[in-house]
Specification:
The structure is a homooctamer. By secondary structure, the first copy, chain A, is α/β, with parallel strands linked by helices. Chain A contains nine helices and nine strands. In chain A, β8, α8 and β9 form a beta-alpha-beta unit. In chain A, α2 packs parallel to α3 and α4 packs parallel to α9.
Chain lengths: 231, 231, 231, 231, 231, 231, 231, 231
């Protein structure tokens, strides 16, 4: 096999969070090869040097290819996520709240929550709290107020991001989802809605990008940010 | 002058609401000519036969052209609306509530409210009740619950439509506005948001179409709908 | 199973119409679970407290999952709708007319008609009355004039909404459909057409959203709107 | 002045209709230079060899630049058209009907009508016959049925094209106009509507392209098409 | 079966060309039912009263459903067209040329050519004459010059329409196709290209709409247009 | 004057950061009125209760209207920002770095930096560090590594966000700007680029939304986030 | 079989590079027929007269159809390319570097590299050198500086094109790929990014168009460009 | 004045072509400041070290600001370009042909031609050679065949790029222009047309980006490309 990847093994040391592999456009063989390269490296430098590697958007075939090379990895089918090492680390830093507007948004929300957990955070998930009935989100108000970072996962019109941002001190990361039909245009309606949130404190990641949101939430709520010095 | 218009004088008899003239793409002379034709007709058949004619999107020059032919017309600069006859009719039917998300949305909201009033309804306006602070809309909850029709005017992410629809029995007419910048795309973000409202009971009119929303609200809250008979 | 939904059981009391479940993005298991939660609740508070629940966009597998938990529910394959309880209520209020431009628009039209019927209205359906031959719609003119609300379902260029609105007193709810090809862009052409209708009195719901249109038609034609009081 | 144009003097002989000059993106000096080149050529080969040249989208400054070089040219400010020679030729061939949906569409309709007249056709114009009141177009039904080509000029939702095509034997050329606001997107809504016309027999030119529509109508209704021979 | 269609049996008398049935969004049963209704009508009034009915976009299953009700119909799989009666009529009027840019555009070109033939015209097809090598189209120059109407079928950048229009007297009907990938956006690139053709004399139909183009070509090249009379 | 606004005076207490007023769509009189309401409130409850109010997108006329009601406010013309009280607070929390790709992006970058400063952070600005020459950003590598939050302001292709995110531990907030022309589509190219950043850790705000980015950066780098407790 | 193609056999003599056949929209039979026509021609005029023909986007079925008519052709499944004759020619001219941002972009990169090789160039491929870690591309800096042409293949945000162009003397051909999801819109984000590259020296081909990029790279790095003479 | 720019003085040494300053989004003062910085640097290291700096999109005010700091610079108003030093260098390398479809495209074509000249190439300009009359471009066939690089500048449907590419050996750089109206969408139609060119050998730069095209043409036709060595 010709070389197919040049993995960023140094990312954990450089940035604090390890490489993740987006498996969707890759063949099953390529996924296995990448997992193999990771295992070889970890055998050389040790797991602690590399951090938790995540394989995202992994259907069962791709997940099994990864697991064949990284025994002990954990596969979460609903979130289409493989994590290695499989054990969730002990949480440090602030708490992340992941609020999910509807049942159909759950796969993306779970991807966000699991990512933040594997990157070292405590996470609470709120399910089916969309604005069609405000009581569903307002009853969690105190929890939201205490969060260090809030991830809002919503499709359709994505109004939940604005509503939550109006309630909290913490930054809100909006994840528009492709849930919807017709003029939702595969998540564009929710994306535009979140980009135009009337309440400040909302930033947005790509449609269905639960991984990116979980990563950001982990960064935002990280402990022990050292003070900057002069350049 | 060659003929420039074939006015729908029969609309009030046929549909219950008179013709309206969208002045934006018309020259000042064309506006004056249309007003003249209306006056001539009304001198022939009588005002009661024709209903209240509205001239929408009328800047001062166009408004004055209309007023020169229809003395006694009323001009509302903020809403860019001319109504003739100028007197607001006595309201009948259910009450219309026009809820406006932000100060910048006021011109469109006023156009909606004035249209519904000239078409015969009682109207209450709620100003600056956007979702960045939910208390602003929730304190009007009883008023909203009792409305026969609710018009929600909002730009940016347009989330107010979903939130209001979740609270009320009456139909909600969403009017996306071009208020915003960047990825609001001149009102497209709010339009898509309202079309994808997660709460049923929202329908949408064109961006900035306060006139259309007021017209619909008047139709929805009209009194004395006669029972249908068999065909 | 972790919690997957927080159903809005209070919607019938709060808004007058029960919750509906959009099944398209949900797994078969999630549909069954939601149906089970609904049945449990209804066993607690009684069916009359909750109203008719609808499951929309239900293919056969999802429909059977719902029926397994809610025996006595009625499934309409053409409209992809499950209703529970299955019996259509006795109609009250004004009559709804659902006008369908072409044969291919029928599934959406049937969804609209059934929704309005389960929400308590008398509904008449007009089939294949597109504007390529005006006689087809004009022969129903009297029926249209007497309607309390008109739903127009059309794909392609969606011109029927403007034409019907020019004929009637009642509000017209336009439902653009994804029927068409090429530059119909999955219903966008019809959507834009209806949003720009030259005749006032048209509002629009999402592409293919028969449920939303039927819901709105039921609201608009509802009986016994109580008079508003002062705030 | 460096050379700025390479005019297609042979087009009248080759295609039967002369060159036209789109002035909008050209400077006043360039317009004058092009007119001068035309005059020089006509002095050489004679006017009859070249046909009627049209300068389209000419505001007053550009029109005067052309007139300074081509005395005897005729300027039509409403249609922003300059024609030279200025005299309209005697009509031959079938009759063209130009139907204009609203007063604001008149400039485009006049450009179409004048183009067809200068290319040698008899033209009848119908003004303000949009579908908000079907009687306005239906009262011209016989005229439409006898046309050799029909140009339909409409903005907003552009439904007139479908309605007219359903009535006539002749080809319909749809000209979407930029009349409208919000979700008309500068004429895109009308363009898409006409491209998706449910009645066959409609083809479409660019938004606001009255010139192109008039040209096509003249071609379609031309007399004396000679029979094809074998290749 | 509830009524599913209201066929336009009078179109041949009214417009000169019969109804066509777009089968793509219809079920196999609906196609059969429509064919049955047509046969019943033809048994009543006679085939000559109705003209040739076409069923477009018919895959094999839909085609067989039609053929089961209309024996003697002719099916053209490449063009996905069923015609009934199956015999092509004797051509009258001017000749139509259908020019096809590439091999992949053939299905659309064949649909256009067959439609024009069944509507009574003589048709010549030019295959694979795209502009990447101008000699391929220029060698047919005389044939093009003699055509009464030219249909240009092209995907990708659609430049052939402009090039052909620059050569001929006859109107050019551009049919953008969905052939291409990436930034062709399913035919949008070719559509926009043809709408912006720098040579006058091009009008455009919907992407892949071979039927519409063939219909228009037949109208344009029809014999015996009677002279208009005064209104 | 009718009521035009319902200011969110409680936001500083509720969320930790005061209300901001987007002045762009408001009249000069409305800006003055809102400033007057703020002053009145501050006279009642005291400035410390309300926090620093910002007026964004303020041209000179709007700024002067605000300053007339809030003497002592500070106006920054380049950033089109008015702050009141005018004195910048003593910074607390982590340091924010604002990296600006080109000179034309400076107004947005300054708005972001000033917002973060008024919300209490230490800010360092990097100017003209776009990727056309990587050395310009790489020479600030240590500064970037020590930041608590990084704001990247870039138009055109917006590549700087990905490049910076690959270097740092802190979250990156991308602000696409409308700098560019043609296929930048007013900032859409940069927006899409940032939403698709191949390096995790980038979230995005609306085009040209320097205020929103500064607000988020201040939230992310805030001191003393209290630990969440159980709900 | 009716004629289905008019192959451009003269292209190699006219332009220096042979015809290529885009197989994606063609049937298996059409692919075989085109291959047969090519073989027949080559038997007549000799292979050297025609150059290497390429069949692009060939899945296995289409490839086998070609191979059945052109024995000795070479099929590259990853790149979906068939070349005939199968032997790669001896390279002449400057060297081409193909830089590929991620593993998922490999099929497009391989298509570009193989095309340039069959058109006579030496090619070096760089794999997985995206900007999330700049070291991956910077370590190849000398190689890039010496290239005669650089092809950059990247999906997602496509930032690699700008970064590479900032480093090199040679022209950069950007190939946006459809790798990504959500707001990558099938490669549009990368396409816009590359079109707006802040570093001059980047031009762009269609999304996923590896063939076109390889062709251009071969043209740019061709040897022996003869000096122009006066016209 | 705070620092506003970090100029890339090393670009001429690194890439062979100097920095260019896009002035459009910059203030007059910023343009002057940048020119001043350039002059200071050139006084330090000498002009020969820096190459010709270009200021693009410079209206008269910005041009004068530059000229005030860089006396001896040359301003070309039609192309909105300032070059310093003002003298055009002696051409080396292959010849560049710039072909311009219409008179309105001249400013962009002139920008491309001047850029290539200041970067050291011989340039020939062809004016008004659009495809509406093929003879205009075909009469320059030999000139095109001998070019080392061809720049095609075209608005509207941009078909000229495909036609030219079919004729020549050299790479074609397409520059779509914003010339057109309606569905040209500010140059998008031409952009898409060129991206989908059916003839290989076309790559595309941003709409109206004459500078970028001239830069690429100079790179492609540069003399003395040194042979690559092994890495």
């Amino acid at each position: 096999m010709q070389p197919i990847a040049d993995l960023d093994f140094g990312r954990y040391q450089r940035r604090g969070y390890a490489e993740a592999v987006f498996t969707e456009g890759k063949t099953v063989d390529q996924c296995a090869e990448i997992a193999r390269l990771w295992r070889l490296k970890s055998e050389g430098v040790g797991v602690a040097e590399l951090g938790h590697v995540l394989f995202t958007r992994a259907d069962r075939a791709r997940a099994e290819a990864v697991l064949s090379q990284l025994p002990g990895a954990q596969y979460y089918p609903e979130a289409q996520l493989v994590a290695w090492p499989g054990a969730v680390p002990e949480p440090v830093g602030g708490r992340v709240v992941v609020a999910c507007a509807g049942t159909s948004d759950l796969p993306v929300a779970r991807e966000a929550a699991l990512t933040a957990r594997y990157l070292g955070r405590d996470v609470i998930e709120l399910v089916d709290v969309g604005v069609a009935n405000l009581d569903r989100i307002l009853k969690h108000r105190r929890l939201l107020e205490e969060a260090a970072a809030v991830v809002v996962v919503a499709g359709m019109e994505g109004a939940l991001a604005s509503v939550v941002a109006g309630l909290v001190r913490a930054p809100v990361i909006g994840v528009p989802t492709s849930v919807g039909y017709g003029a939702s245009f595969g998540g564009v309606a929710a994306l535009l809605s979140m980009l135009n949130a009337c309440a400040p404190g909302v930033s947005v990641v790509n449609i269905d990008n639960g991984y990116g949101a979980g990563h950001l939430a982990a960064q935002i709520s990280a402990p022990a940010r050292k003070e900057p010095t002069n350049d």
